[in-house]
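Data availability excerpt. The first of two example chains:
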Amino acid sequence: MSQATIESILHEKRLFHPSEDFSNRAHIKNLDEYRQLYDRAKTDPEGFWEELAETELHWFKKWERVLDWQPPFAQWFAGGKINISYNCLDRHLNGDRKDKPALIWEGEPGDSRIFTYAELHREVCQMANAIKELGVKKGDRVGIYMPMIPSAAIAMLACARIGAPHTVVFGGFSAEALKDRLEDAEAKLVITADGGWRKDAIVPLKDQVDKALEAGAPGVENVLVVKRTQQEISMQPGRDHWWHDLQTRVSADCPAEEMDSEDMLFILYTSGTTGKPKGVVHTTGGYNLYTHVTSKWIFDLRDDDVYWCTADVGWITGHSYIVYGPLSNGATTLMYEGAPRASNPGCLWDVVQKYGVTIFYTAPTAIRALMKLGEQHPDARDLSSLRLLGTVGEPINPEAWMWYHRVIGGGKCPIVDTWWQTETGGVMITPLPGATPTKPGSCTLPFPGIVADVVDAEGEPVTDESGGYLVVRQPWPGMMRTVYGDPDRFRRTYWEYLRPQDGNPIYFAGDGARKDEEGYFWVMGRVDDVINVAGHRLGTMEVESALVSHPAVAEAAVVGCPHEVKGEEIVAFVTLKEDLDASEELENELKQHVVNEIGALARPKEIRFTEELPKTRSGKIMRRLLRSLASGEEISGDTSTLQDRGVLEKLRGG
């Protein structure tokens, strides 16, 4: 597809419709069916969710009340007894799914393993008994600091099985960041590994745990260690225990605890611009239902699918859409330890080809990185098994959407561009692939049961095509319940930023968005990523999209820099595609390209070329660090999520 054709499609806002065959086989088959579900959920939310809870999940005891809403605190299905580990495993053991692959795992060096539902159930029960043997009781918190190996998912399910809330800390975090999270969660046990593989190198996880525990986290009494990379590590007698030693002597019989629907399931930490990370609390029943239903309808899960979400289990995407959502549906979910690297830039496509992956869910950042590596890598593999693609983590620029659709999907796969957050528990705005015509760059329409809107600073709805604050007006089962240990912070951060005149609290997501004339949502990025140039508000995503639409640009990040007259000016950080060199001529060409795409108002004051951009370990660009660099300020705030501190040093050095 030529650049001119792509530009024509984007200019016309052309709709991409699912094929008739896809729609006929889908769970939700057309827009009329979607609208009926949406209208019913909006007018009778409790009836809508109650029916799904009754038909989709196993409960030991039915709830006393569907929803107790004391804004901003919600209780869903309170009094109901449930266990998410049971819903993910035990209920699939009676029938054909017992011997069906539940978890496919591919290690970076090429080792692999496939667990059936029966085998995964046995492993989870054994680890649950080992955790209990190490003194963990119902209600005790457990820290999980693991590579992308099966034991990470097994540990999560084992904790859920015995009612011990887990806090998974991404394996790329520093010892200091790990310590802070273990201390805040008051963890009693840490589950880790000797190390993990990442881009042909060993990440020494146990060493980081040792440093974290030397520096603090006095509540940790034991460390359970899985052997993965085989290098020599320190094992403290009495505190550190090898999993393979315990596994030989614990029973594979561990009945699931009957948990109250509102019992805590996990704490997951998100970073703020200042202060300590926020411990987002999710509870059991509502989260189980919401991740189950969103997985089923958004990914149109079928019994023969091989579903692959490329996230790490250390992030909410891994929790909801690698482990809990897919397994609750009895699906086959895939985990991959590795990442594209110099020794194998096409490794993702090797995995798709090897296992016949049918559903592929990844981040726009990853898509742009794959674009930069070139089409020769996917072109050299058989990707014909793919039937559905998805994106998550940030707004996707339309050019990357088109590349994904054309090169990876072969022009035949619907793309579900999903918007959601750690705090929401599951996807909030998304296409339903058999029903929703899609537009490149738009996450389209709210999921049934989600009443989303775009409002002004007074909480009043804005007109079509006007930018504003993205909010949610009604509670939903997957919503976070509080910030761990700090309910006032929960109230202030999410429910008091905007105060509508009618007095009804609304959840503010922190993102800006607009709706078009067809009601489609276009997320513009964080509201602190809006630049005010001479009184005109420009979303960074809009300018970044313009830059990335230039054939020389692989990735771009745009920030505002203070200006005494205009208020702010635009500074762009740009990485180029392979084999292209930065030059003054190219800088001028890119500035003019932005003018052509948006207008003279959006012309960047400066373009800084860089080999890499500072990103979190989940792939999000850390624009606040770039703002500090552009303004010549000292970098402050939480940088624990930064993937590579060397990138900052290179940018500082010009």
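And the second chain:
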Amino acid sequence: MRALILFCLTALPLVASYTWKPTEKYLSDSLASASVYQVYPRSFKDSNGDGIGDIRGVIQKLDHLVDANVDIIWLSPIFSSPMVDFGYDISDFRNIYPAFGTIKDLEDLIEEAHKVGIKVLLDFVPNHTSDKHEWFQKSLKGIKPYRDYYIWHPGKVLENGTRVPPSNWVSIFSGSMWTWRDERKAYYLHQFTKEQPDLDFYNPQVIREMHEILRFWLKKGIDGVRVDALPFIAEDMRFPDEPLSGKTNDSSSPDYTDRIYTMHLQKDYEVIPGWRNVLNEFKQPKYIFTEAYANTSATMKYYKYGVNFPFNFDLIQHVNKSSDASTLKDVVDNWMKNMPKDSIPNWVVGNHDQRRLVSRFGEPQARALTVMTLLLPGVSVTYNGDEIGMSDTWIPWEETQDPQACLVGILKYNTSSRDPARTPFQWDDSVSAGFSTNSTTWLRVNSDYKTVNLAAEKKNNDSFYTLYKKVSTLKKSPFLKKADLTTKLLSDNVFAFSRETKKDGSVYTLINYSDEDDVVDLSEFQNAPKKLDVFYATANSTMLSTYKMKNMKKVEVPARAVIILTTQDVKLKSM
């Protein structure tokens, strides 16, 4: 989905302490301690020097994914496309965009990834196609059965004889959700750009087509899919006007209406079991992850319909630079308390639709959130480049690629563009940051690449990647999967959580999200031993190499610090 819809957390009373315990079913799930890594192929690694990343480039860099303790990679769309929306406008669901490579390249990637223990998921984009897709071209001509694959409507005729769209629905990007075509003498619906016509999921043939597309790629060996834009699958087919939001008088703005007839409908959930049944035809495990910016109850509902997990965007939607420790606790507790029993939690802090983690929060807080994603129970999700602390790259208007930015124009593009977070991965300090042998890349490389790059960070104990590597290694400790979670506010400034086991070791994480040094009492964790090792300590992005915990009742936690403490038997197991 290429838009951020904000919702409130479910109201929960904030308590001083909250504890969650893993169930037997949770412990038997292979996902329960997995690390998922989003690869944005266009920007990951260019293998042939054309300035665009490709599948062969991903193969070349599998060693990095192994080093970063990645279990699953999810590839952003690689299918045939006119690239109006960089692959989310698919013209052929069964083929690969030539600049990314071939089906054989993908098969090779799957084979090589499996050899090193990494599973491969593809982006599944069922909501719409490109207007260049064969289905839409035949639908334009009224050819059966394709004439009914999309949502067409003759519109309304006003008293003065003017024909207008059937409803006031507004596209996620800008302008009406309806576009007229003379060939059909009708409007077609598109939740996103006009080049992305929506499929009609009330048509059983469309549902069957999507099942066959899933089977096609599953037979190639993929391990599952991440489903894009799921809340947009269905619309109210009576096409009533949506109520005005009151946020703007601009009828072309995505904020003009409240989307009560075009998002989060029951039909969005009902298509999922069919996809799950298709995946179940193949050797398990096969995964379904879903994208939905929704309130807590609407998000949790996806679990019940057969997905492994809906992406948890609460750390994106509800935490910012000005948040406090209680907000961190509230976000964690809210997800864990509302998640159905036996389910797998997950933690997301960045993706291709958001500004870079470091740019949104600053590096110290970005480090804190990264540690949270890695050490909280369940799945951590990392967007490529966030593990080395990449920041946004300024892209001038004349170089802007993102359609979301282009549609709003030069005066507003900078606040709408997602290009800054999509620039090439910074591998080293060579030409184009080692991303390409070509000095010209599809988006410019960030000017800080001489110092912010993977090769340099591997040599620097203070670096973002050093922290990421060390903590992601700790995440792989066998005991951590079965550890209880307890969250506490140790002060107004310090959020803390423990991952405790009775026999196999425990980890205590202290996060000072404020600009003030603080002293807290770690004995509030009743099971914490008096003597703990310092696994990692950082404050304001500098490793505290001499940090010691002298008195558990008076633990010093500097401003913008992350302190990770372990029982004495953990350090040897995890490194």
